[in-house]
Amino acid sequence: MCNYTAGTHPVNPCYDLAHVTDAPSTMETWATLHRAHARVLAELSRRMEAERGVSVLEHGSLYELSSPPGRRLRMAELAERLGLSRSATTRLVDRLEERGWVRRESPREDRRTTNVIITKDGRRAFVRNNRPFTAAVEEAISARLSGEDMAELIGLLGRLCRP
User: Fold this and answer.
1) What is the CATH number of domain 24-137?
2) Cα 60 from chain centroid (whole Å)
3) Residue 116 pairs with which residues in a beta bridge?
4) Against a cut of 0.90, is the pTM above it?
5) Could you tell me the end-to-end alpha-carbon distance of the chain, in angstroms, rounded to an integer?
6) Whole-angstrom Cα distance, residue 62 to residue 95?
7) Closest Cα partner for 87 from 97, 96, 76?
8) DSSP state letters, 49-99
9) In angstroms, rounded to a whole number, what is the distance separating the alpha carbons of residues 59 and 96?
10) Which positions ≥6 away from 130 have C-beta within 8 Å?
11) Model confidence pLDDT, tens digit, residues 76-129
12) How far is the C-alpha of 3 from the C-alpha of 116, rounded, in Å?
C-alpha cells in the first residue's frame, strides 16, 4: 500500500518504483518531459495543419522516409521511429498513400514484411513543408530556451536515447 499524502508532492509516486531510489524526482522528470513534448507537439500540430494542411506525424513520416537508403523503411521500423503502434502506423501510412506520398511494397524474399517507400510527390511535399516546419520548431523551442539550454538539453536527451 502506498503512503502517499496528496499535496505533499506534485507527482503521485504510488507506482511500483521500489527499484528507483528517488522516485518523486524520477517521476517529476518523466512527467515534465512528457508535458514539454505534448505542449510543443500540440503547438506544431496546430500550426502545420492550419498553415500547411499536413500533420506533424505526416511530415515526420516523410522526414524519416527521406533519409534511409532507397528512401524506404519497414513498416515496423517506421512505427518505432515515430513512437507509434503498428496499427496507428498502418492508419498513418493509409493517409499518406491516399495523398500519393508513399507506396507500399512487399519484398519477394519475405512477403510478411511491408516496406513503406516515399514517392516523388511525397518528396516534393516534404521539401515544400520542411522550411515552414523547421521555422515553427525553431520558434517553439528557441522562444523558450537559449542556445546553451538547447545544447544541454540535447546532451541530456541523447543520454536517454541510448540503449
Assistant:
1) 1.10.10.10
2) 7
3) 73, 104
4) no
5) 32
6) 12
7) 76
8) HHHHS--HHHHHHHHHHHSSGGGEEEHHHHHHHHT--HHHHHHHHHHHHHT
9) 10
10) 59, 63
11) 999 999 999 999 999 999 999 999 999 999 888 877 889 999 999 999 999 999
12) 49
User: What are 36's three cell numbers?
Assistant: 514539454
Residue type, 118: I
Write out the three cell numbers for 91.
Answer: 492508419
Q: What is the pLDDT of residue 4?
A: 40
- As given in the structure block, the three cell numbers for residue 117 are 517507400
H helix and E strand count, the chain: 6, 3
Given a contact cutoff of 8 angstroms between Cβ atoms, the answer to whether 61 and 119 are in contact is no
| pLDDT tens, position by position, 10-48 | 554 445 444 555 555 888 888 999 999 999 999 999 999
